[in-house]
Amino acid sequence: MPVHDLIRLSPEVEAALAESRPIVALETTLVAHGFPAPVGVEVGEASEAAVRAAGAIPATIGVLDGGVVAGLTAAELERFTTDARKLGPRDLAACAVQGAVGATTVGGTLAVAAALGIRFMGTGGLGGVHRGWPLPPDVSADLGAVARTRALIVCSGSKSLLDVPSTSELLETLGVPVLGFRVDTLPLFYAADGGPPVSARVESADEAARIADAHWRLGGNTLLVGRAPDESLDVSELIEEILAEAGEQGVAGQSVTPFVLGALHERSGGKTRRVNRDLIVANAGLAGEVAVAYGAL
Ligand code: PSU
Ligand code: MN
Fold first, then answer.
1. 0.85 exceeded by pTM
2. Distance 13 CA to ligand 2 centre (A)
3. Which of 60, 87, 105, 261 to mutate for ligand 1's pocket (most ligand atoms within 8 Å of CB)?
4. Are 223 and 213 in contact (CB under 8 A)?
5. In this predicted model, what pLDDT tens digit does every residue of 40-68 receive, in sequence order?
6. In the chain, which ranges are continuous DSSP H helix?
7. What are the catalytic residues?
């Protein structure tokens, strides 16, 4: 089966690809597993609106009805509930063939975007090295995906429940540029300050687009652009407390992120949910701006 039969494009995404218009890929894991229903769907829709406001076309990606879909409709997005599988790059094919509903992570979304030639993506926080490595030896497949594919992802750094300094070192090892959008340090997801240094600071979407273009022409793969959350929140103690509980309860692997995000949302009185939502939407908008700037080069 040729790849275009396996990947179903919405008419809008198909036309945008044919006309080489700016497109931003969006993930569905945060829709299904990052927020309690129905907040996830609202976050997905608000992210799409932010991409459109910047002048680009959103392509929200997931697996449904035996195929990979790029450009989910609002009705399709509603099907991404907590029952959806969480799909890293290795999980796409099995989910499609088995006809299950699958929500793509950053890595899973990048794999699809790369197959289609979509170069821009917005998300909340990248996966990375989990705390306590090498016990457990849990390193997100997001990192392998950014090393293998060619795209630019706007995010608020890596998720702060991770070992952020080790994640930053690994990004350097993998040759992934980490650009700070008007910041000198990689944002710590909920918190703006205190992260590791970026590899270069940029002042505008246009500058990020020009660096991406140069990086790709030099044979490079995915770049990150770190954008700080507008409202900064220090929840480091809460994160430690919740991670300890996750360990005691035997929560491991793919379940760690949803468990921690859910508990944080509850114990911060909804504050982390608000910050998380707003940073995801703002990152989608900035990804749209960079995609538009790249198209104008
Ligand atoms: N950031 C969020 N919410 C999320 C995630 C990141 O604000 O739900 C998801 C992303 O889809 C990311 C994934 O790709 O967590 C990484 O999961 P893991 O550590 O299991 O690889
Ligand atoms: Mn993991």
1. yes
2. 30
3. 105
4. no
5. 999 999 999 999 999 999 999 999 999 99
6. 3-6, 11-18, 29-33, 39-53, 74-77, 92-98, 106-116, 141-148, 164-173, 205-217, 236-248, 256-267, 271-295
7. 27, 159
